[in-house]
C-alpha cells in the first residue's frame, strides 16, 4: 500500500480523457466536413466552375484540416472531461445564473478575445521564420476554397485550438451562447475562404463592413499577405495600420 496504491485509478481516468479528446476530434472533424461541404456545394450553385482545376489543392486542404481537427479535439476534450467530471470552467447551464443581457455580451466578449489572440498570433506568424514553419501551409492555397477553413500546419492548429478551451476558464458563458460562438467561428472560417462574398454589397461596403470581417476582407490577406490579419473585426487592423481594405474575387474558370 505505498506508491502503487493510487495507480489503478490512473488507467480509467486517462482512458476517459483520451475518449473525450477523441470524441471532440470526431465532432470537430464532422463539423468541418459538414460546414465546408455545404459551402462548397453553395459555391457550385452560385459560382459554377470557381474551383475548377483545384482538385489537388482541395485534397491537401481537406487532409490538413482533418489533421487540425484531431489537434483541436485534444484541449477541447480535456476541458469537456473536466467540466463533466469535476465542474471545471465557467460554463453555466442555468440561463438565469446571469442577467439575460449578459448572453449577447458574453458572445461578443468571446469573439473580441478570440479576434485579439488571432490578430497578434497571425501577425507574428507572418514573420519569416514562423511563416516558413507554421503558416506557409495555410497560404499554399492560392486561391483558398471553402475546404481551406482549417487548413493549418499542426503548429498553427495548436495556437487556434487552445483559445476557446482557455476562455471558458476566464469568461463565464452559457452553454447555448458558447454554441453560438462556435457556430459563428465555423461559418466565418469557411465563408471567409470560399472565394466569393455571401453578404450583401450594401452591408460589406457600408458602415457595418467597416468594422466586420467577411470574405472580401480576408481575400485581400490571401492576395497581399502583409495586411488584414484580423478574424472577426477590423478593429486591430485599423488601429495598427494593417488594414488594406477589401479584396477582389477571381471569376469562375
Ligand atoms: Zn486564411
Ligand atoms: Zn496569413
TrEMBL record:
Keyword presence, Ribosomal protein: no
GO cellular component: membrane
Record-annotated membrane-spanning stretches: 12-41, 62-81, 101-120, 177-196
Biological-process GO terms, alphabetical: lipid biosynthetic process
UniProtKB keywords: Membrane, Transmembrane, Transmembrane helix
GO molecular function: iron ion binding; oxidoreductase activity
Any Pfam family: FA_hydroxylase
Compartments, record wording: Membrane
Fatty acid hydroxylase domain: residues covered: 107-242
Entry-linked PANTHER family: STEROL DESATURASE (PTHR11863)
This protein's name: Sterol desaturase
Amino acid at each position: 500500500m505505498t506508491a502503487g496504491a493510487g495507480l489503478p485509478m490512473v488507467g480509467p481516468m486517462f482512458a476517459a480523457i483520451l475518449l473525450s479528446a477523441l470524441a471532440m476530434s470526431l465532432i470537430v472533424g464532422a463539423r468541418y466536413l459538414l460546414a465546408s461541404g455545404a459551402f462548397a456545394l453553395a459555391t457550385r450553385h452560385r459560382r459554377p466552375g470557381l474551383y475548377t482545376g483545384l482538385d489537388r489543392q482541395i485534397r491537401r486542404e481537406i487532409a490538413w484540416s482533418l489533421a487540425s481537427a484531431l489537434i483541436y479535439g485534444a484541449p477541447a476534450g480535456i476541458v469537456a472531461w473536466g467540466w463533466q467530471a469535476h465542474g471545471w470552467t465557467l460554463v453555466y447551464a442555468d440561463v438565469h445564473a446571469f442577467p439575460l443581457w449578459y448572453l449577447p455580451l458574453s458572445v461578443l466578449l468571446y469573439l473580441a478575445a478570440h479576434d485579439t489572440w488571432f490578430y497578434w498570433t497571425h501577425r507574428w506568424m507572418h514573420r519569416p521564420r514562423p511563416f516558413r514553419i507554421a503558416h506557409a501551409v495555410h497560404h499554399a492555397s492560392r486561391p483558398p476554397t471553402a475546404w481551406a477553413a482549417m487548413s493549418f500546419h499542426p503548429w498553427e492548429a495548436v495556437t487556434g485550438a487552445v483559445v476557446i478551451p482557455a476562455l471558458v476558464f476566464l469568461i463565464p458563458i452559457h452553454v447555448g451562447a458558447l454554441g453560438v460562438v462556435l457556430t459563428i467561428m465555423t461559418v466565418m472560417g469557411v465563408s471567409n475562404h470560399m472565394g466569393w462574398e455571401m453578404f450583401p454589397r450594401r452591408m460589406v461596403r457600408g458602415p457595418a463592413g467597416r468594422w466586420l470581417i467577411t470574405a472580401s476582407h480576408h481575400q485581400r490577406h490571401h492576395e497581399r499577405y502583409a495586411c488584414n490579419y484580423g478574424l472577426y473585426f477590423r478593429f486591430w487592423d485599423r488601429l495598427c495600420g494593417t488594414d488594406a481594405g477589401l479584396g477582389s474575387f477571381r471569376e469562375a474558370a
